[in-house]
Design goal:
By secondary structure, the protein is mainly α. Helices cover 44% and strands 10% of the residues. It has 2 domains: 7-141, no CATH class; 194-317, no CATH class. The chain has helices at residues 7-11, 27-38, 41-44, 47-61, 70-77, 91-108, 137-141, 151-187, 194-200, 244-253, 266-281, 296-299, 314-317, and strands at residues 116-119, 128-131, 210-214, 219-222, 227-229, 257-260, 287-290, 303-307. A 3-stranded parallel beta sheet has the order 7-3-8, with helices on one face. Helix 2 (27-38) runs antiparallel to helix 4 and helix 4 (47-61) crosses helix 6. 16% of the residues are buried.
Length: 326
Amino acid sequence: MKEGPSLGTELRSPEASVPQPPDRVPAEFVQKELERILASPAFTQSQRLSRFLRFTVDQFIRGEGDKLKEYHVGTAVFDKDDSFDPRTDPIVRVEAGRLRSKLKEYYAAEGRDDQVLIDLPKGSYAPVIQRRIKPSVAAAEVPVIRRPIQWGNVAVVAFLFLAALAALWAFAEFRQNQILRSQLEAAKPQLTGPEFALIWKSFLSPEVRNFAILGSPTFFASPQYNLFVRPYVINDASSLLGNPQLRVLQERLGPLAGPRYDYALLRDALALQRLTAFLVGHGGSLTAVPAHEAAWDSIQDGNIIFLGAPRMNPLMQQLPFQQDFE
């Protein structure tokens, strides 16, 4: 291979007197870095890669990096003749890949503290030479102080945070209760007339218990079909024996289990909620009892309110006396 002019000759050339860009590495620094790399074990054992690297760096120093094409490298470094065709002979590409790997190995070991970096980017045969970026002096000199976590302080902050949440929740509940109480108080004057007293006065006496008897629709279970059925005309469990409607159902659905009381009318539930709010809001009370559990012995000494259709309240059919409403 024909040797180019020496580095000293180039430094004395007129071009060398031109001020260099501040980010450009001086040629003498590049040459010293090249010699350090070639003296490392990874390159002393591979003359071909050493020759490849020296040639590309020398071309770069001469300012002829743009001439580093695959054909030019093949004929200058790997002694290929003029018939060399890079499309059929991949030697330059293969050796360039090996050279990149060797440079990475060098800078990961012996060259980890070098101030100049020589790299051969993928897809190019012109080296890229740059200075190693040093960490700023301020960042290097200022120590990082990591204080241990004060778990006691964390617990105090968490406690204060939870206490604040609890206080907010308590205030919201207190405010809501105030609004409800004011609404009840505002409603009281409208219900203190003679008509109100005529109907409800006895229900608001604290000495007397009030009972709301809910209708209990009668249902039966069909294990064979996994169904719950309700015979419309059956509303009193005491009259089931020999009931023709129940017999017809059993012929169609098989044996029936029951009676069961798993259902309540929605309007009965709404009425119970409104009655409870009304009576409790005016100093009274209310106890709800399903019709199938109601017995005269337990409710006869209190005020009784029937909710629901009469057919679903068999207790109404058993009233011990008849009395017209006033």
